[in-house]
């Protein structure tokens, strides 16, 4: 079995839902909310 590692940063928007495919593979579904911010190079402020 291959294992992938993923880092997700944000806020869960609903409870995770664990289910199985017909072949028995586990699948997890969830929602994540994020806020994109960037630093204005001219003013130095975060926007």
**Mean pLDDT level:** 92
For the secondary structure, the number of strands is 4
* Helix/sheet category: mainly beta
Question: Could you say which overall geometry the principal axes of the C-alpha atoms support?
Answer: elongated
Largest sheet: 2 strands, antiparallel
Number of helices in the DSSP assignment: 0
SSE run: EEEE
Q: Please indicate the percent range of residues in DSSP E strands (runs of 2 or more).
A: 25-35%
N- and C-termini, Cα separation: 43 Å
The neighbouring-strand order within the major sheet is 1-4
Helical content class: under 10%
Radius of gyration over all CA atoms, rounded: 18 Å
The stretches of 5 or more residues where confidence is low (pLDDT under 50) are none
In words, what does this structure look like?
With 47 residues, the protein is an all-beta fold. It has a domain at 9-34. Helix content is 0%, strand content 26%. The chain contains no helices and four strands. The chain has a two-stranded antiparallel ribbon with strand order 1-4. The model has no long low-confidence stretch (mean pLDDT 92).
């Amino acid at each position: 079995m291959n294992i992938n590692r993923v880092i997700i940063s944000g806020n869960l928007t609903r409870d995770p839902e664990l289910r199985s495919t017909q072949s028995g593979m586990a699948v997890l579904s969830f929602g994540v909310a994020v806020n994109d911010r960037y630093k204005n190079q001219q003013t130095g402020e975060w926007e």
